[in-house]
Amino acid sequence: QVQLVESGGGLVQAGGSLRLSCAVSGIFGSINGMGWYRQAPGKPRELVAAITNFGSTNYADSVKGRFTISRDDVKRAVYLQMNSLKPEDTAVYYCTVSRFSVGVGGWWGQGTQVTVSS
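Structure (tokenized):
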């Protein structure tokens, strides 16, 4: 059974930091794309950050310079370090992995809530 389990969400004041983790299990073989999406109330889900198995990264313009994505292929995990958080970062954050590029098929976690207070 494939499982993606996110952790690390919570409530933080503006300017603070959080580190999201996503542990992947039940997938055999290579995983190329790993990433994080987020969805705020009343808004569509958007890509926050993605990383390939070669270590190439891609970030939404709104988080560049504040967020850092990383992965550990031995542990089968992906992380999102979020610094200088803003109220507009408030959303449910979803982990996703794919044998191809992030967002192309693949598997999703259940989401973790991040709330940034002003």
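Residues 88 and 116 are 8 Å apart (CA to CA). The mean pLDDT is 96.
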